[in-house]
């Protein structure tokens, strides 16, 4: 194979005809493959089936603090779960709230409350301000952006670099604009690029000067234990860094067991300074008498301790690493020599991020859909669904069985070649 842009127009047209024949053949196969969301596969879900057995009717439901897990109470979660998840996030149990089944729900509610009441230290509810803006390192997680859109928070994209967001841009923007109240971050094995923020980036976040005194970092550490290798990326502790910098209240940390145990019936957690937690706990107690403590107890019994979580995650990695390896191998063999695409090679998380030539991602995704392969919508990884270079495609390798995954990537690579050649011929 040669680089596509090194071919004559005639050779390109011939190549296009060959690829189109292949495409029409695939179209006639009536494929129905869905690669659109990062979900665990059934084999991964099976790893946590023991959850159903760890709490039975003959059990002792008494918690560490003497209360009964079956009854009302404990608005910020059971002590056992605080202890377990505080180890996972490197914070103290006093700096945690253990919530319901979804960290996205906690993030949404945090910002909804900020709009209604402000956060600790706000002069006024954010919604009373003429404008509230958020920085959105991009490509990023589409559901973060959807929360901002819903709440009328204006989004400002910031480029992602190899070690985290473009901190020169971030520092400049937050230093000069009081309406910028926060930033979204997926600091470890980021969605979709698999980037882990460097220590220097974490320190710059902790120390940067912000014009808004009530600026918040939404630190979504969703993939903190989701390693794909035996040499996990390390992430500097942001809460410690913020505290050391004299900005202890700057960060809200989130995570969950959605991709450790069961999405939809996992346990979500939030960590922040004790002052922040106290402020939020009071608000939460008007919303609920308490979360699902039985589910929290089940999780503690199944996962036990940090070692238990790590062992469990190794079993996940054993199932999904071959899928990541397959995608990477196919991208390399189908596209490696063509000089039309680049992609991430993550050490963890749930995604591979693929960049096409500028102006091609939408066409590639549409063409794959017309052949029965549904990918994440092009543009979804940018605020307002608008990828300014129309080049980013998020690949989610975990859910499909291997055979379907291979077929889907074959179709993706084929469509990418066709669209790229068509663009070169224009
Ligand atoms: N945060 C990130 C970065 C994610 O990728 C996802 C799911 O894909 C979530 C949060 C959802 O978390 P939860 O299931 O805890 O709501």
From TrEMBL:
Q: Which Gene3D superfamilies match?
A: Aspartate Aminotransferase, domain 1, Type I PLP-dependent aspartate aminotransferase-like (Major domain)
Record GO terms (molecular function)? transaminase activity
Instruction: Please give the superkingdom of this protein's source.
Output: Bacteria
Keywords on this record? Aminotransferase, Transferase
Q: Does the keyword Ion transport apply?
A: no
Spell out the InterPro entries in the cross-references: AspAT_Ic, PyrdxlP-dep_Trfase, PyrdxlP-dep_Trfase_major, PyrdxlP-dep_Trfase_small
What CDD domains does the entry give?
AAT_like
Keyword Transferase carried by entry: yes
Please give the name of this protein. Aminotransferase class I/II-fold pyridoxal phosphate-dependent enzyme
The organism named in the record is: Alicyclobacillus fodiniaquatilis
